[in-house]
Design a protein that fits this description.
Number of strands: 12
Largest sheet: 5 strands, mixed
Shape: globular
Number of helices: 25
Distance between the termini: 6 Å
Strand order of the largest sheet: 3-2-4-5-6
């Protein structure tokens, strides 16, 4: 495909090389198509991702969760009937003969949990923490009330507890996510930049080597560097290699069929459907029933369960998950060879696809192939390594770190004495401050300057009170509730809990704010990335500003429609969310544009690192920022993602009390970035040789 300018150099008469009317018409249509792509591609990617996550995970609840009941026949049947009557849709109960059979079913993950009833008036609840911490707590929440309600003594037994080096059970999840990213990401950028590498005789050996490199890096970071996994080196390396190779093989086939759009197909099955169906972060038995079906054959689930099987279950269930990956790789490679044969038959002289991204950097296309290939390889490599190391490093060992809590007593002296006593046993876990005012402590909890307030018993009230705010963060509320229940038990006083902002049924995990924020941030980022590659002429500031403004309005409306009327994850607050979303998207787009001016397509690496890989752990969304390394508490007050999460949280649950502060954060990022773009354009404009034509001033007419 050739590129010509519409303006002839001065001094040269028009000749046969001047574009024809047909050429000009075709060029105009292509230019329109490129401008449309700026809106369509981000709309599809963001819309697909946010719709999938919110629809699946905004309000998880037990859904046909398999539970085994063991005991004498009459007793077990009666307990099973009572359990089903309590919530028929929540459980799928099976009665087994012995406690050993129930234990085996739990360990093999055929059931999510089990209860064994004894003749001595006790009941043992079996769970497997390594099969999913959220699943174990859900099972206990289902079974414990029934056990206690029938007057039985409750005994809990974890058949596969998580080790101390992975207390949240997230190692397998982040390993699987990193491997999936490494499998589906490289081919689309290869198609755009170096399509000759897609020839099957080159692609398969490259994929095999790439898989080996990624598997070694994932093992090295998770094991020797972070210590999130221990042992099982050969098995982890083998599973990791197979996972990347299988997903890469499928993505190679999809790329040859769908071209650049293959990245959307891969994202659909690997991330949008694959992550919820993986059973890693959230139990599939708390999601719509579709995900239990998808769990049986999607690669994210197969990879995560294979790693989990090796790490925590002595290899139980490994074979079936490995088989899923092997079948996927074999079928994909056979289909790829078939597609190649059909294309050769139809067009024996057909060449490689057109190069649409000549250079991944802000400079010209490298003249040496090895330089171009090295740059191409570093692109997905950096993305995988950053995602895996930062996200896993931030979240695999969550623990309270100087979590702010107020201790309230009748007098300041009594409160200070209590603080001193508590600090002796909880050094470094909580930042305790003394107070003699319940009202002031409640106000501090309400404005989120502290996580909770612990009110000591007094003459007027012999009961201790824990004042919390669930909407400010479920994970931190759970930590303080568990901790101060133990404190109250040690003091031998009853504890009551006062929740100032409970979460609604539409957001039972408190993660809706994070998913909506991801929609805003991804939209702004995608505008710059897609525009820079699909329509570079649109990235000139004169055109970019109105495009970015219109795009921000459009995508803010899209995200709200997905979150509210489409999935029901939010309820109302349209104008506030819509307006804040416009600001967030526009400012994020300006920041991403600044990076593309500096680094070209490689800007994706620092942009995603800052906006997502650092932004998500610092956001105080899925996990409290007080349970992550201290650096993320600093980043929480700086980065756009935390500003987006806290803006939404403030609007939806706290009367928009802190939106102004976060809008200032966005404004700083947006204004500074815009000034940077202007400065770069001025400098480059001065360096431009007289009479030269930039890529943005050319029109493709072939």
């Amino acid at each position: 495909m050739s590129t010509s300018t519409l303006e002839q150099p001065t001094g040269e008469p028009p000749g046969d090389g001047e574009p024809s009317e047909a050429d000009l018409a075709r060029a105009r249509k292509e230019e329109i198509g490129r401008y449309v792509a700026i809106f369509v591609m981000p709309f599809l990617m963001v819309g697909m991702m946010i719709t999938g996550y919110l629809a699946a995970m905004h309000a998880p609840a037990p859904n046909n969760m398999p539970i085994a009941v063991a005991g004498s026949t009459e007793q077990a049947v009666q307990f099973a009937r009572t359990l089903e009557d309590a919530d028929p849709d929540a459980v799928d109960v099976r009665v087994v003969s012995t406690a050993d059979e129930a234990r085996d079913l739990v360990f093999s993950r055929e059931v999510a949990g089990a209860v064994s009833l004894s003749d001595t008036g006790s009941a043992t609840v079996y769970t497997a923490g390594a099969a999913g911490a959220s699943q174990s707590s859900t099972v206990t929440g289902l079974l414990a009330p029934q056990v206690i309600g029938q007057g039985l003594d409750l005994v809990a037994e974890d058949l596969a507890p998580l080790p101390g080096n992975d207390t949240a059970g997230l190692a397998a999840m982040f390993m699987a996510t990193g491997l999936m990213l490494a499998g589906y990401m490289p081919w689309s950028i290869t198609l755009s930049n170096s399509p000759e590498l897609l020839r099957t005789r080159r692609a398969i050996p490259l994929l095999a080597g790439w898989s080996a490199l990624i598997s070694a890096l994932v093992w090295f970071i998770a094991g020797p560097v972070l210590g999130a996994i221990e042992g099982h080196t050969a098995a982890i390396l083998g599973i990791s290699w197979l996972a990347v190779f299988a997903v890469g093989s499928v993505q190679l086939f999809l790329t040859k069929i769908f071209g650049p759009m293959a990245v959307l197909v891969g994202m659909l099955f690997i991330m949008v459907l694959g992550v919820p169906a993986s059973n890693m972060g959230m139990s599939i038995y708390t999601l719509p029933s579709l995900y239990t079906t998808l769990h049986a054959f999607l690669p994210t689930a197969a990879t995560g369960e294979a790693i989990r099987s090796v790490l925590y279950f002595d290899g139980d269930g490994l074979g079936s998950n490995v088989l899923v990956l092997v079948i996927g790789a074999v079928v994909a490679l056979a289909a790829t060879l078939g597609v190649d044969a059909i294309k050769r038959k139809r067009n024996p002289d057909g060449g490689d696809p057109e190069i649409t991204v000549a250079s991944l950097t802000a400079g010209p296309r490298p003249e040496r192939n090895w330089v171009r290939y090295l740059t191409l390889g570093c692109f997905p490599l950096a993305m995988v390594v950053m995602m895996f190391s930062i996200m896993l490093g931030a979240m695999y060992q969550p623990a309270p770190r100087e979590m702010p809590v107020i201790v309230v007593a009748a007098t300041m002296e009594q409160a200070e004495q209590s603080v001193a006593g508590l600090e002796q046993n909880m050094t470094g876990l909580f930042e305790l401050t003394a107070s003699d005012s319940v009202d002031e402590a409640s106000a501090a909890v309400a404005d989120r300057s502290v996580v909770a307030a612990y009110v000591l018993p007094s003459v007027e009230s012999p009961t201790a009170t824990l004042i919390t705010s669930q909407a400010a963060g479920m994970s931190q509320q759970q930590v303080v509730a568990m901790t101060f229940e133990q404190v109250s038990a040690g003091m031998q006083v009853p504890l009551t809990t006062e929740d100032l902002a409970p979460l609604p049924d539409s957001d039972t995990m408190g993660t809706v704010t994070m998913y909506v924020a991801m929609g805003w941030i991804m939209a702004g980022f995608m505008l710059a990335v897609v525009g820079n590659s699909a329509a570079p002429a649109a990235m000139r500031l004169k055109k970019l500003l109105p495009i970015a403004a219109g795009f921000s309005v459009f995508m803010s409306l899209v995200v709200w429609v997905i979150a509210d009327p489409l999935t029901g994850a939010l309820d109302g607050h349209f104008l506030q969310l819509f307006g804040t979303g416009i600001v967030a998207i526009f400012c994020t787009a300006m920041f991403s544009t600044l990076l593309t001016r500096l680094f070209g397509m490689l800007a994706v690496i620092p942009a995603v690192a800052i906006l997502m890989f650092l932004g998500v752990p610092a956001s105080n969304g899925a996990m409290s920022v007080y349970m992550s390394p201290e650096i993320f508490r600093v980043l929480h007050d700086i980065l756009p993602m935390p500003a987006a999460v806290e803006s939404i949280r403030s609007i939806v649950y706290f009367g928009a009390d802190a939106v102004g502060t976060h809008l200032v954060t966005f404004a700083i990022w947006g204004v500074v970035s815009l000034l940077g773009v202007i400065a770069i354009d001025i400098v480059r404009g001065r360096k431009k040789p007289e009479g030269s034509v930039t890529a943005e001033e050319t029109v493709d007419v072939s």
